[in-house]
Amino acid sequence: MSHENYELKAEARERVGKGSARELRRNGLIPAVIYGDKQAPISIALNTNEVTKRIHAGGFLTTIATIDVEGKKIKVLPKDYQLDPVRDFTVHVDFLRVSGNTQVTVEIPVHFVNHEKSPGLKAGGVLNIVRHEVEVHCPADAIPEFFTVDLSGHKGGASIHISEITLPKGVSPVIADRDFTIATIVAPAAGLAEEEEGGEEEANA
């Protein structure tokens, strides 16, 4: 699971629209909606400080939460949030209802370890990260916190593909038709220059 579950208290809101949303924000609240699981959407209002704290803590969109709507507790996964383009504060949040069999599509961060055990990096190469996150399908109650790529033994010029990541049971990449690249190890520029010079000399000879 990505992060520890948490609970947010919410108020049901009957009025919707821009005027109502502005009034909520003036009162320190964020308008939000809970949808999905073949049920009618519920419009709610959440404490701005609580939501902002959760967003800044990381893993917001990959962590299951419980929303207490005036005594009724609903299990949800945050699906999206909007920020004010000028003042950079949260203006709206969308939550998806989840149950034991809910499948979700989420982006999981990729962590790289054992840089010092990579011959390519030790020789002065550079790790070129193609995908900082991988989009996957997985059960809502079993979202991985991150994927780990072990760089041990990788030489300069190596490509690291999704097949090198051991995915948990029930987790599959959204891109399923090819073994896509996660990162490459770019050989040192000096080494490349020497190879090019050597090639030119051979050609001249």
Here the CATH topology of the largest domain equals RNA Polymerase Alpha Subunit, Chain A, domain 2
The CATH architecture classification of the largest domain is: Beta Complex
Lateral arrangement of strands in the main beta sheet? 1-3-2-6-5-4
- Report the total helices: 4
Shape: elongated
What is the assigned CATH homologous superfamily of the largest domain?
Answer: Ribosomal protein L25, C-terminal domain
Unreliable spans are: 191-203
Mean pLDDT: 86
Class of secondary structure makeup: alpha+beta
Major beta sheet summary: 6 strands, mixed, barrel
Report the CATH C-level class of the largest domain. Mainly Beta
Helical coverage, percent range: 10-25%
Q: Could you tell me the number of beta strands?
A: 13
**Rg, alpha carbons:** 23 Å
How would you describe this protein?
Belongs to the bacterial ribosomal protein bL25 family. CTC subfamily. GO terms for molecular function: 5S rRNA binding; structural constituent of ribosome. This is Large ribosomal subunit protein bL25. By secondary structure, the protein is α+β, with helices and mostly antiparallel strands. It has two domains: about 90 residues, Beta Barrel (Ribosomal Protein L25, Chain P), CATH 2.40.240; about 100 residues, RNA Polymerase Alpha Subunit, Chain A, domain 2. Helix content is about 20%, strand content about 40%. The protein contains four helices and 13 strands. The strands form three sheets. It has a six-stranded mixed beta barrel with strand order 1-3-2-6-5-4. The protein has a four-stranded mixed beta sheet with strand order 10-7-9-12, with no helix packed on it. The longest helix is centred in the C-terminal third of the chain and has 16 residues. The protein is elongated, with a radius of gyration of 23 Å. The C terminus is likely disordered.
